[in-house]
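User: Can you predict the 3D structure for this chain?
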Amino acid sequence: MWRLLQATVVFIVLSVTVVLALRWLPPPTTAFVLARRIDGWTGVAANLPIRREWAAQATIAPDLFLAVVAAEDQHFPDHHGFDLNAIEQALDDRERGKVRGASTISQQVAKNLFLWSGRSWLRKGLEVWFTGLIEVCWPKRRILEMYVNIAEFGDGVYGAQAAARQFFGHDAAHLNTAQAARLAAVLPSPKRYSVANPGPYVLRRQQWIERQMRQLGGRDYLGPLLAD
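Assistant: Here is the predicted structure, written as C-alpha cells:
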C-alpha cells in the first residue's frame, strides 16, 4: 500500500510538472509520434520519414484554428475540457447502435501528447486526468496552438507547418480558408483520407466545415480567445 501511495504521488508530481512546462515549451515528441516511429521500425506501417515542425500561434493562419474548432469541437471556447452535451448525445446514439465520438480538442491534445490508441478504463482515466490538468494549467489559446502543432494531417505528417509545406507548398501562415478546411476535413482519419488527393467525402466535409466557419461568425469567433 505504501509503495502504491508513493508511486501515485510521484506520478502526480511528474505529470503536473510536465504539463506546466509544456505551457511554454514545445514538446520534443508526442506519444502518437513515438507510436508511429515504432510501427515503422517493426514493419506494422511503412517506414516513412516523420515530418514535424513547431510553429508558434502567431505564424499560423487564423483560419486553421477556426477550421479545427468548426470541425472537431464547436463549443471549445465555452467548455472546461469536456462537452457534457456531446457526451450525452454520444451515449444516446450508442444505445441506438450508432457509434460517434465526443472528444473535445482538449481531450485529443491529452491523448496525442501522453497516451496510446485503444479503449480501456485505464486509458480513459488517464485521459480525464491529463485533460483536466491541461485545462487548469494552459489558456485556451495554448491548447489550440498545441493541437494544430501535434495533430496528424497525413501519414507521418504532424502539425500545421509540416502539413502546409507538404500539401500546399507554403508556410502555415499563408493557408487560406479552403486549405485550412481541407486540413481539418481529414482529422478524423488522416491515414485513410488524403489532403493531396481528396475523395468525395473529404470534399463534402471541407465544404461543410467552410459553412460552419461562416455560421460561427468567422475569425471573430475565436478572436478574443487567440488574443489572450
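The radius of gyration is 18 Å. Residues 141 and 191 are 27 Å apart (CA to CA).
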